[in-house]
Write a structure and sequence with these properties.
Helix content: 55-70%
CATH architecture of the largest domain: Orthogonal Bundle
Number of domains: 2
CATH topology of the largest domain: Hypothetical protein af1432
Largest sheet: none
Radius of gyration: 18 Å
Number of strands: 0
Strand content: under 5%
Low-confidence stretches: none
Mean pLDDT: 94
Structural class: mainly alpha
CATH superfamily of the largest domain: Hypothetical protein af1432
Number of helices: 10
Shape: globular
Bound molecules: fe (ii) ion
Distance between the termini: 39 Å
Amino acid sequence: MRITYPEDPVKKQFIKLAEEYARQRMQNLRSSHGWDHVSRVVRMALHIARVEGADTFVVLMASLLHDIARDEENASNGKTCHAEEGYRLTLELLTPTSMDPPVALHIAECIKTHRFRSNNAPESLEAKVLFDADKIDSIGAVGIGRAFLFSGEVGARLHNDEHTDILSTRAYTEEDTAYREFIVKLQYISDRLCTDEGKRIARARHQFMSEYFNRLHLEVTGEA
Ligand SMILES: [Fe+2]
Ligand SMILES: [Fe+2]
């Protein structure tokens, strides 16, 4: 990803700092949740920010840093919440710099509330933009691709057996298929978005993804 830096040299410096820090922290992640994901979230977040009139500097900083604590969450088997740990690490990174403390806090708070399962709902417009851009990357054609990439990473099958009760299957097993992810999570994502532009993009992606997974099920069961 090529980031278009703002003219302001101070902002440019902060963005470079965030990008380098995030790239270094994320270098060992599996590709379904790695830097490519961050690149797409940055592009989508900047698009939504421009349409919605959000602060593009805050949105860009928060997008670059939003998943910096993924490794900690993986290493703790989910006990550490990467959104909360990302909030802490972001403040640790930005507090010693010359950035105004309220701006650093604003960026960190966007990160704290970006998680789908979190009880912390996004409050500021910039937090809503990051939330939407991150969720949009889980649906549509990209969402389908990521779901299969992830199921491959955990050694899951192409599709669940037609007699399998999806809701009784477990994550990180052979049954943790892309279809399972759609049934338990991805089909609900478009209903949870916050901004009008995010909702507009999510509607089209949701429709495409639903058609795909319905078709997949029909093909596997020999009905199409
Ligand atoms: Fe995340
Ligand atoms: Fe993310």
